[in-house]
Design brief:
Layout lengths: L2 H6 L2 E12 L2 E12 L3 E5 L6 H9 L6 E6 L2 E2 L5 H6 L2 E3 L12 H13 L13 H13 L15 H14 L4 E5 L7 H13 L5 E5 L3 H7 L2 E6 L2 E6 L1 H6 L1 H8 L8
Parallel strand pairs: 3-8, 3-9, 6-7, 7-8
Antiparallel strand pairs: 1-2, 1-4, 4-5, 9-10
Helix pairs in contact: 4-5, 4-6, 5-6, 6-7
């Protein structure tokens, strides 16, 4: 998404002067962020910059000390995390969170059930709910696990478990998907599969991505925002961020070059 296109795009998420303090530590310091509908927006910055705290605030896992979060035109002040999720603001975590003793299909089916509100009936097999499992099967295929639906989630590789976690989020039909380091702990092949997956989701959902893999960020992101000491010091496309002297000094360093 070019800067010109972004200027005419619909704003989906607006973060305004967000502050979160932990005692004497200011984790987010009047942070401002704009995410437009249909883009992949990367949030980068050095360790301790406040990225995960900001994601916690946006998702509702942490309550802000001050500032506003507007999502789809609605002010989220005071709204708990589960209600934000129902509005389509859905997140994943740095640490994989799945039901390892259930199959891939059952994991995703539970996420589908959470959205659709269907309930298990006594004296009826769970798999009789054909629509729910059909939806779960489609999601599994969407995230590259179509051949693994009957495997226990705990038997998947680390990369496959991360794919499953993205599938759980997709099953809730998000308007905005918050991904906190989805490529953490992955090898090159697994990271490449995740990049391909996230690229394929552009037409399905807007993504706000926290990620340290800069090659992946530059390949994926339409817009990149840089957080340093709790403040967003720059936002723009990959070239604008690479050319920003303040960003290079604070985070990227002169050794970073554009991917081919």
């Amino acid at each position: 998404m070019s800067n010109n296109m972004r200027g005419t795009a619909t704003v989906l998420l607006q973060v305004q002067d967000l502050v979160k303090r932990f005692g004497g530590l200011t984790a987010t310091d009047h942070a401002n962020l704009t995410v437009c509908q249909g883009e992949i927006h990367a949030l980068i910055g050095p360790n301790g910059a406040g990225k995960t705290t900001l994601i916690h605030q946006i998702s509702g896992a942490l309550r802000s000390d001050s500032g506003r979060i507007v999502f789809g035109g609605a002010d989220l002040e005071g709204m708990p995390m589960h209600l934000r999720a129902r509005k389509g603001l859905v997140r994943s975590y740095q640490i994989t969170s799945i039901f390892k003793k259930l199959s891939v299909l059952d994991n995703i089916a539970l996420a589908v059930q959470a959205v659709d509100g269907s309930s298990m009936q006594f004296w009826r097999a769970a798999r009789a709910e054909h629509a729910r499992y059909a939806a779960a099967t489609a999601v599994a295929a969407r995230v590259g696990l179509g051949a693994q639906v009957h495997r226990l989630a705990g038997a998947l590789s680390h990369g496959e478990q991360r794919q499953l976690e993205v599938g759980l989020a997709l099953a809730t039909r998000p308007r905005l998907l918050l991904l906190d380091e989805p490529m953490a702990g992955m090898g090159p092949d697994e990271s490449e599969r995740m990049v391909t997956l996230l690229q394929s989701l552009r037409d399905d959902t807007t993504i706000l991505l926290v990620e340290h893999d800069m090659d992946a960020v530059f390949r994926l992101a339409d817009t990149i925002s840089v957080l340093v000491f709790g403040k967003v010091i720059a936002s723009g496309d990959a070239q604008a961020i690479r050319d920003n002297a303040e960003v290079r000094k604070a985070y990227l360093g002169d050794e970073v070059e554009a991917p081919a």
